[in-house]
Design brief:
Length: 513
């Protein structure tokens, strides 16, 4: 189908978003984010030095092949990133996987995807805030961790409420600081290796100690993929991404898609480099580390201390403390967009669908997300086992949503889209100002093509999402029993809410009839 007048999905997105301005009356977000802004949000949420906390556990589990673990994990998560890149062009709307599941699978599946993603977007920032509070407490022991945690929530919430560009600029400064610290570690490690050589073989971070074990590497990969949770948050800003060099104009969906894929590649490179150098400099073997589980959490810091000096250990610790708070800032912003999108579709209280006329952000949705995160983070900070408990339950929600994302690609390109269905149904948008599907041209699909023409690409529209789904299932199976239990309870509660909403709408429809 040829498309004129700016491309199907993109014209539709502009119509659905109501153009560039935002107001509380229309619920429209402002298209002001550049490619750099989107990349900053994704890298902030992931954190450039995310492997630091789990480096020791992965080194022990993989029998020393920690760098290979991250290379494999990057490839595994690439399937999910590619599915996001495909669906953001079909439905460039706030809400991310919630919107994509609505498009590809239907209203019910969309609600379940949003409900499960909500668990992730609300609790991952809580973990990050708590980590920041604990790290700052270690630097200033006279102040309790919960105070630092609450302060971090307050500061980042104010930044998010001030506007998406303001928060992005602050995030860019923090991200630059984290990358500088990582560069200092890399240079210091290289200098140490040149001066004194490596305590172990140069290939061991890729092949393992004492021989390669595929089972050990795959077991570690199931944990390492969790380091990448957060790159998907970029898709939540689809209605705020412009296409021109200044962040305006056509092409916003393409910009979001490129940012998602670029974020994953950049993170994968950073993770591989830092784990390779740290593994070479490890003062103990992977077997010794496996025998001392209590030392695994601080293994990266211990390596920096023994190989370079205490100053580098402290520098990395400070960077992680500040970086964690701003990772939570990006997560909170994504959570606000998810709540906003679900409220706009009357799946959550409508008050959260309002956009502040001054700042152009969904203020009430952001405050709702901040309140839940504050309660979870401060409550955990007041418990001795709070970090362990909170960390054990944050993953299943995101992974379930990823699974529905992959199913959405297949559902849209092979079933619903080929029937000529609009990307979103009544009240869901993606309808241009003229009321025609796809915006000015009246066509349904733009550059993503294929619908209404030849069959979809088997590789991109079937093989890739199926492989991504297999990765997600494998990771969920490997998740802790606590995470599976909490995820199951949250899923059941969501299904109950969905059933109640469906019953209420059915009764309302019957009354009107």
């Amino acid at each position: 189908m040829p498309v004129t007048g700016g491309g199907g999905e993109e014209g539709a997105a502009d119509g659905a978003a109501g153009g560039g301005g935002g107001s509380a009356a229309t619920g429209a977000l402002r298209r002001t984010l550049t490619f750099r802004d989107l990349l900053v949000y994704g890298l902030l949420f992931i954190a450039p030095m995310a492997p630091v906390g789990i480096f020791g556990a992965l080194q022990a589990t993989s029998h020393g092949a920690v760098t290979l673990v991250y290379l494999v994990a990057t490839v595994a998560m690439a399937f999910t990133a590619f599915s996001y890149a495909q669906m953001v062009r079909v439905a460039p709307r706030a809400g991310s996987v919630y919107t994509y599941a609505r498009v590809g699978l239907g209203e019910g599946a969309g609600f379940v995807a949003g409900w499960m993603a909500m668990l992730d977007y609300l609790l991952i920032p809580a973990v990050a805030y708590l980590f920041s509070g604990i790290a700052l407490h270690a630097l200033v022991p006279s102040v309790h961790p919960w105070v630092w945690t609450a302060l971090a929530v307050a500061v980042t919430t104010l930044l998010n409420l001030s506007g998406v560009r303001t928060a992005a600029r602050a995030g860019f400064a923090v991200l630059a600081m984290e990358i500088v610290v990582l560069a200092v570690f890399v240079v210091s490690a290289v200098v140490e290796l040149i001066a004194h050589g490596a305590p172990r073989g140069w290939a061991e971070p890729l092949t393992g100690e004492g021989g390669f074990s595929a089972g050990a590497v795959l077991a570690a990969v199931s944990v390492a993929v969790l380091s990448y949770l957060g790159f998907d948050a970029i898709a939540s800003f689809a209605e705020e991404a412009g296409g021109g060099e200044d962040g305006r104009g056509p092409g916003g969906p393409d910009r979001v898609a490129r940012a998602v894929l670029s974020c994953l590649v950049v993170a994968g490179v950073l993770f591989a480099v830092q784990t390779y150098l740290a593994a070479l400099l490890m003062p103990v073997s992977a077997a010794e580390l496996a025998a001392r589980p209590a030392e695994q959490g601080a293994a990266f810091y211990a390596t920096a201390d023994s190989a370079v000096g205490r100053w580098l250990q402290d520098l990395v610790a400070v960077s992680k403390a500040v970086g964690a708070a701003f990772a939570a800032l990006a997560g909170q912003a994504a959570a606000g967009r998810l709540l906003f999108a679900m409220a706009r579709d009357r799946r959550l209280p409508g008050a959260m669908s309002k956009v502040d006329a001054g700042s152009g952000v969904p203020r009430r949705a952001l405050l709702g997300a901040a309140l839940v995160t504050l309660v979870a983070a401060v409550g955990a900070a007041r418990r001795d086992d709070g970090l362990a408990q909170l960390s054990s339950i944050v993953n299943v929600g995101a992974l379930t949503a990823f699974g529905l994302l992959h199913a959405s690609v297949i559902g849209w390109f092979w079933v619903r889209g080929r029937r000529g269905r609009p990307p979103l149904g009544r009240g869901g948008g993606l309808v241009g100002r003229t009321g025609e599907l796809g915006g000015r041209s009246g066509e349904l699909v733009g550059r993503t093509g294929e619908l209404g023409g030849g069959p979809p690409s088997v590789l991109r529209r079937a093989v890739v999402p199926l492989l991504g789904l297999a990765v997600v299932v494998a990771v969920v199976v490997e998740a802790s029993a606590t995470a599976q239990l909490v995820g199951g309870v949250w899923l059941v509660s969501g299904l109950v809410v969905l059933a109640v909403q469906h019953g209420g709408r059915a009764r309302a429809g019957g009354a009107r009839g």
